[in-house]
Amino acid sequence: MKTFCFLAFLFFASASSLGQTDTIAARIVLIGDAGEFTKGRHPVVDAVKQLIPMDAKTTILYLGDNLYRSGLPDEQYSYYMASRSVLDTELSIADNTPAKIYMIPGNHDWENGGRNGWETVIREQLYVDQLGKKNVKYYPENGCPGPVEVSLTPDVTLVMFDTQWWIHPYDKPEIESDCDYKTKDEVLTQMDDIFSRNSKKLIILAGHHTFKSGGAHGGYFKLKQHIFPFTDIYPKLYIPLPGLGSIYPIARSVFGTPQDLKHPFYAEMIDAVEKVAKKYPNLKRPIRRSSRIFQKFLSHLQILRKEKLKLLKQLNTRIQLPFQPVISIVKRDGLKE
What we know:
alpha/beta; Purple Acid Phosphatase, chain A, domain 2; three-stranded mixed β-sheet
C-alpha cells in the first residue's frame, strides 16, 4: 500500500501588475503515486474535488505510478477492468470542467520496469487517449522521453520528462524510433534550449523519479525494515529477522535497485540533468536558494514540512515573478496541511 497525497501551488498575480486586488493567476495540483484505491475509493481524488476549484486556472498533474503494480494489463487479463477503473477515477477529477489534466508515467506504468514496459506504457497512454477527453493529455507519448513543454501562463512553463525511459534497462524507443528526441544527449540538449528560452519564467520540470529522497529510495531505512524486512514486500508480513534482515537495506543503501538514487543509471540521470541546470547562474539544484527555476522531481511527493517552508521562502523571496505562490499539501486521509 502506497502513501500518496496531493500538493497544490497557487500563484497569485500581484496587485501592482493588475491594478486591483490580488487574484489567482494559476493553480497547479501535483498528485503522485495515485495508482490504487483505498478501501474501494480514491480519497485523494475525492479531496481534490472537494477542496480545489476546477476552473480554467487549475492544472492537475499526475506524476506517475498511475497504476499499480505493473501498469495497465492487456484486456485478456481478469484484473483489466479493476485496473482500468483506477485510471477512470483519476481522470474523472476534471470532468465537465475547464481544468486541465496532464499525466506522466512512472516505473509501475512501465510494467514496474519489466521487459514489456514499453508496450505497457503505450497501452496505458492509448487508453487515456481513446477516452477522448479534450482537457486530458498523456505526456510524453509513445514511450518517448520528452521533454514536452507546455505553457501554463505567460510566467509559468511546465516541462514533462519520462524519467523511467532514462533508467529503463529493456526495450525502449531510441535512435530508430519516431521520437523527437531519441538519445540522452538529445534530451539534454532540448532541456538546455527550454531552460534558456524560459529563463525569466518559473519552470516546473516534472518527472516521476525524485532527485532527493529521505526514504528507502535514498538509502534511508527505518528500524522496522531491518527487523521485519518482508514488510517492504507485503505490509502485514511481520516475520522478524534481526541481524539477517539488515542485509537487504544495507546492500540497497550502498548499491541501490534501478529505482534508487544509488543505482548507476539513476545517478547518471541526476548528474546529467544537473549539469545542464548548472549552466544557468540562476538554476542550481532543486530547492536552492538562488534558483529562479523550480526544478523538482516528485516521487511519492516527498516535500516534507521543512522542505515546504524552504520552498515557500525560495519562491516568495528569490524568484522575481509577478505573482506570489502558496503551497497546500493534502494527504491520503484528506487532512490538509
